[in-house]
Write a structure and sequence with these properties.
By secondary structure, the chain is α+β, with helices and mostly antiparallel strands. It folds into 2 domains: 58 residues; 117 residues, Alpha-Beta Complex (H-NOX domain). It is 54% helix and 14% strand. It is built from 7 helices and 4 strands. The protein has a 4-stranded antiparallel β-sheet. Strand 3 and strand 4 form a beta hairpin. The longest helix has 27 residues.
């Protein structure tokens, strides 16, 4: 993953819990990197170790950490890093979700070695859809639900997401039922 992911995790933890607890998380994870460089690649293992250590140090579940990280990613990291791309993604939650493939294609121009997830949308209704999430990385479904919650906040649209299909032996991807208030 690019350093911007680990830097965003650091920002979320320091803003919410303080610099001291971030240092404890890094120590527990065995990560001795002083500062993550946003456009530099790092092994995925570092991010997973940091999340696991945060679980232990902060006494939050991995699900809670990933969910909050997803919200933070949308409302802070993405907003500050590429707000123009977010704004071009659509005028409402449904449009934005349908345009996610275009969004990731544009971000890939900035980060050429990026391995973004793939998203597709089916079953679009007036106030719901199904979001299909394909990723080479396992265990990030709570992050996606956090992203959806953050997008709901961004568009002032209360959203409810249900993890309907879990990636595993029966499915090569996750599926989320997404409902919102009109």
């Amino acid at each position: 993953m690019y350093g911007m992911v680990n830097k965003a995790l650091e920002d979320m933890i320091t803003e919410r819990f303080g610099e001291n607890l971030w240092e404890q998380v890094k120590q527990k994870a065995g990560v001795d990197i002083h500062a993550f460089v946003s456009n530099e690649g790092y092994p995925d293992e570092i991010t997973y170790k940091l999340v696991g250590a945060a679980h232990e140090v902060l006494a939050l579940s991995v699900t809670e950490i990933l969910h909050e990280f997803g919200r933070h990613w949308v409302l802070k990291t993405a907003r500050e890093g590429y707000g123009g791309l977010l704004d071009a993604g659509g005028d409402n939650l449904c449009e934005f979700l349908q345009n996610l493939p275009n969004f990731h294609a544009r971000v890939s121009l900035i980060f050429p070695h990026l391995q973004p997830p793939n998203f597709s949308v089916t079953d679009v209704e007036e106030s719901s859809l199904r979001l299909h999430y394909y990723s080479t990385r396992a265990g990030l479904a709570p992050f996606v639900i956090g992203l959806l919650d953050g997008l709901g906040e961004m568009f002032n649209t209360p959203v409810r997401s249900t993890h309907e299909v879990v990636r595993g032996p029966q499915s090569d991807h996750d599926v989320f039922a997404v409902h919102w208030d009109r």
